[in-house]
Specification:
β2, α2 and β3 form a beta-alpha-beta unit. This protein has 3 helices and 5 strands. Strands 1-2-3-4-5 form a 5-stranded mixed beta sheet, with helices on one face. The protein is 35% helix and 19% strand.
Length: 118
């Protein structure tokens, strides 16, 4: 499976422009992961304009599980992070920095919400 991760693009427009300039109906990955559900709308629009069907030609997964993602066309598959655990680990990390302690890597549980885009 050919997976592409789109990160560092901060707006719907930048994801749209990236997709318009880098995807074609004959040349695209099997799946794209976009770091932010809101920005996925730019990718969905670009795929539509290029005749790339979701999920038949390409699967898309976002990150955040924002409420509107279930209403995209197609409904967006997304990763839903455990925000309570994330906040707790962030606070622990800040306290460790304040107290001059080493910070270890942490794992945050999350789950995949599978909808129509995957």
């Amino acid at each position: 499976m050919d997976l592409q991760v789109i990160y560092g693009l901060t707006t719907i427009d930048s994801v749209y422009s990236y997709a318009i300039n880098n995807l074609s109906n004959q040349n695209h990955p099997d799946m794209i992961f976009v770091s932010g559900d809101e920005k996925v709308q730019g990718l969905i629009r670009a795929c539509y304009e290029k005749g790339i069907t979701i999920p038949d030609d390409i699967s898309i997964i976002g990150f955040d599980n924002i409420p509107i993602s279930q209403y995209y066309t197609p409904a967006l598959s997304t990763i839903s992070p455990n925000y309570a655990m994330l906040a707790q680990k962030m606070i622990e990390g800040v306290l460790a920095i304040i107290n001059d302690k080493n910070i270890e890597s942490v794992e945050i549980s999350s789950k995949i919400i599978r909808r129509q885009s995957f």
